[in-house]
Amino acid sequence: MIALALGMLALRWVPTLPPIWLLLVLVFLALPLLLSRFCFVSLCLLGFVWACHSAQGALDDRLPRALDGRTLWLEGTVEGLPDRSGPSVRFILANVSSPRMKLPQRMRLSWFAGPPVTGGERWRLAVKLKLPHGMANEAGFDYEAWLTAQRIGATGSVKAGERLAAASGPAGWREAWRQRLLSVDADGRSGALVALVLGDASGLSSVDWQVLQDTGTLHLMVISGSHVSLLAGLLYLLVAGMARRGIWPSRIPWLPCACLLAAAVAWSYGLMAGFDVPVRRACVMVSMVLLWRLCYRRAGLWTPLLGALLLVLSSEPLVVLSAGFWLSYSAVALLIFGFAGRLGRWMAWLTWLRAQWVMALGLLPASMALGLPLSISGMLANLIAVPWVELAVVPLALIGSLTLWVPWLGESLLWLAGAALDVLFRSLEWMASLAPAWQPTAAPAWALLLALVGVLLILAPAGVPGRALGVAMLLPMFFPPLSVPAPGLAEVRVLDVGQGLSVLIRTHSSAWLYDAGPRSGDFDAGARVVVPVMRSLGVRRLDMLMLSHADSDHAGGALAVSMAMRPRETVGGEVERLPAGLAAKPCSAREWIVDGVRLSSWAWLAAQDSNGRSCVLRIEANGEVLLLTGDLPLVAESAWLAAHPQAHVDWLLAGHHGSRSSSGASFLRALKPSAALISRGASNPYGHPHPSVVQRFRAQGIEIHDTAEEGALLVMLGAREPLQGVRQSAHFWQEK
Questions:
Q1: Cα dihedral 443, 333, 270, 153 sign
Q2: For labelling alongside 87, which of 69, 301, 352, 645 has CA 20 to 30 A away?
């Protein structure tokens, strides 16, 4: 069982999927070993082959590159519950078909200001299709991994459509149930109750998400696994208690009935919650534990865990791309390890306290390996929140939902559940304000493995020698060696922030940020991309935040960056349009020498528009030069040339994301850059980079590097080394 699981788990670290012929070779090598003493190797290979084959099926079902950006008519059924929390309706279209060509079976679509879309309906839609694509940086949420794990082969925006069939089946009644719950007065927490009852978290606000993340209680609202386990456990204990007190009929064996009823409740609640991957995982785990309790109790607690792991991996190997998968199974394994082999009986409160301590400490290496922020208040918050939600809110919400047909009863219970949730959220908000989540510096693999051994030592039984050594083994994970440029060199990272710009410049002892990425609706690139990348690199404070100008695609994330990184100085090209909290100084002609690196800024005093007022930054290290011009237009480029005669650069960040209003031919001839860097969003609506600009670069032999195609771009200025793109060492699920 362990060998088979290890083979499938290895999929998570595969950079490129093996070709089919190599998979067949591995099968032929594994089969003869299956009945030998090397069966461990055989099972490991077979598990790996099955996982790779399943993953290849997901990649084969992606949108063909030739259709990227095209608008096509297609038909499909709306799956699950659409997200109507914003101006756009977002939903998954399944069983997609088109009379013209073969398309991916599942797509994630958005419809701006569209009509009401209900789960279970069948639609005919005109969709502008896009390849599954996400921002590729060295930290932050991996959207492409999430899409691949969901087997979503394309994304797109709906331009027009017509409903072909009304909602039917489970999706239809779940939608009707959601609308009924949202109409109930639940003390302002009806959206959270829908998340608990039906597994639809779209009703939670961005503030709610942040509070849950800061306090480490996200699993209570997002992952319904603990709720499934609780309901099954309560029913099992109810039947067991009746049997112990002689209430259960003596002619009917209580144990099979308890296990059967508990499993039925678990799977029924899973169906209510939409049967997403976390819920399926919990249902499988509960079923395996009940089967173990019924038939295989002598086999030990590790047997149902391994059985559930194998069932989940075999049915969907792509779950290894989900952080929730690793955290949930790690938590169960830690609880088994933390409580097995202990003598004596523990009091209930002490057992609960130890359980929280085991998970808070034990999940640290896994959380850091996954790049997740660490909650400082998580242990205290979970001590209060878990029983509050599991024993009060969830039962009230479920009973209230099932009794809505009884006048006053259902609505009263839901109001009580909402009031209890509101009290909890207020408490969590207070904890989050005192101790927000902490994003640690990324640690190397050896430090994480050492920390894992250290955690197991600390949680081992008291008789195990060397437990105190475990504390020392954690230190390299929290204080990893930092990689900083040598004096005289500058590390320049053009971050992949979509349709916007953010450039991180690090010298031996300082860090500068040029622009902070875009902000649109609830998406703030400063908070979700720029800050996590800087913290993963060990940057705790900025020496300079320079904003080229105040347009949202350049300064939208500035406030979030400023609050997190507390820059010692902020400079902007349009200080009057920036938020007052930034306290920025106007950009002017200045020069700094930091760790042997020369940085100089410039602003066009005669500028009449926003783009023309862009603050320009020139960076020179060991004679190698990189120029950042923001959205500087052609006439302002001429003004810069006039102020800098005989200028030459090695690297040029294409102005205005490759728009034809920048990067003029005369500008390029004067600068003679070796390479141009373009920061833009994939399939952006502006058509950046413009074909004429691309032609200008190619006509002068200028090499082009694009964040939409290569991910974040890294230039070690002063070392005369080739540029590195994040997607060069990408995983198999990332577009290369």
A1: positive
A2: 69
* Alpha carbon distance 464, 499 (integer Å): 55
Residue 665 vs residues 634, 656, 678: alpha-carbon distances, Å: 9, 15, 16
What 3 state SS string does 157-191 have?
A: EEEEEEEEECCCHHHHHHHHHHHHHHCCCCCCCHH
Cis peptide before 689 (omega within 30 of 0): yes
Torsion of CA 334, 336, 342, 345, to 10 degrees: 110
Torsion of CA 162, 164, 168, 169, to 10 degrees: -100
Structure confidence at residue 167 (pLDDT): 87
What pLDDT does residue 343 have?
A: 62
The residue whose two tokens read 């609830």 is 522
**Measured in whole angstroms, how far is the alpha carbon of residue 492 from the centre of its chain?**
25
Local confidence band at 199 (pLDDT 50, 70, 90 cut-offs):
confident
Q: Supply angle C-alpha 47, 49, 54, rounded to 5.
A: 95
Residues 6+ apart with CB under 8 A from 352: 383, 387
pLDDT band at 341 (very low <50, low <70, confident <90, very high): low
Lowest mean pLDDT among 163-172, 353-362, 598-607, 648-657: 163-172
pLDDT at 223 over 60: no
Q: Quote the tokens at residue 473.
A: 């083994």
DSSP labels, 684-709: -TT-SSPHHHHHHHHHTT-EEEEHHH
Task: Please check whether residue 528 is in contact with residue 495, taking contact to mean a CB–CB distance below 8 angstroms.
Answer: no
Domains of the chain: 2-60 (no CATH), 65-167 (2.40.50.140), 226-333 (no CATH), 445-478 (no CATH), 490-729 (3.60.15.10)
Q: Is 522 helix (H, G, I), strand (E, B) or coil?
A: coil
Residue 476: alpha-carbon gap to chain centroid: 25
Report the alpha-carbon distance of residue 669 to residue 312 in Å, rounded: 59
In whole angstroms, what is the distance from residue 178 CA to residue 171 CA? 10
Report residue 121 as tokens. Answer: 């309906």
Average pLDDT of the segment spanning 145-164: 95
Beta-ladder partners of 74: 125
Whether the pLDDT of residue 224 is over 60: the answer is no
585-601 pLDDT tens trace: 999 999 999 999 999 99
Burial of 351: CB neighbours in 10 Å, binned 0-12, 13-18, 19+: exposed
DSSP per residue, 389-432: IIIIIHHHHHHHHHTTTSTTHHHHHHHHHHHHHHHHHHHHHHHH
Residues 548-573, mean pLDDT to the nearest whole number: 95
Name the β-bridge partners of 110: 90, 157
Distance CA(304)–CA(324), nearest Å, equals: 19
Nearest in space to 234 (alpha carbons), one of 421, 406, 417, 392: 392
pLDDT confidence of residue 225: 66
Asked if 43 and 27 count as a contact pair (C-beta separation under 8 A), the reply is: no
Note the pLDDT tens digit of each residue in 522-560: 789 999 999 999 999 999 999 999 999 999 999 999 999
Q: Percent of the chain, pLDDT > 70?
A: 99
In contact, 418 and 190? CB cutoff 8 Å: yes
Q: Per residue in 55-77, pLDDT tens?
A: 999 999 999 999 998 999 999 99
Count how many Cα atoms sit within 13 Å of the Cα of residue 312 in the half-sphere of its side chain.
31
Q: Is the pTM of this model over 0.85?
A: yes
Is it the case that residue 334 has pLDDT exceeding 60?
yes
